[in-house]
Write a structure and sequence with these properties.
4 strands, alpha/beta, four-stranded parallel β-sheet, about 90 residues, about 30% helix
Length: about 90
């Protein structure tokens, strides 16, 4: 199985990555470096909203003749202000 995981560098993302690599091929995407390596892991440093990151992922899939089976979208979206000050436009932009 080929699994794409976003937000893979910290917290639950790195733990899911470590677990899944034992039995599956994992493409892990994160804005931060990944302090983990495994023979079943392809790490792409980037932002899932960035076209270059998406192209790198697609090129890897094409090169290996893989098709994506599962997407785990664990990437977070940071709005760096107190919760009570977050407005709808902060989320939409």
């Amino acid at each position: 199985m080929i699994i794409l995981l976003t937000g893979a560098s910290k917290g639950i993302g790195i733990e899911i990555t470590k677990y899944l690599c034992n039995a599956h091929t994992v493409i892990a995407i994160s804005r931060n470096t990944l302090n983990f390596s495994h023979q079943n892991l392809k790490f792409i440093q980037g932002d899932i909203k960035d076209n270059n990151t998406i192209q790198q992922c697609q090129q890897y899939l094409d090169k290996k003749n893989f098709h994506l089976d599962i997407l785990i979208n664990n990437a977070a979206y940071l709005i760096n202000k107190p919760f009570e000050r977050i407005r709808t436009k902060d989320i939409i932009e």
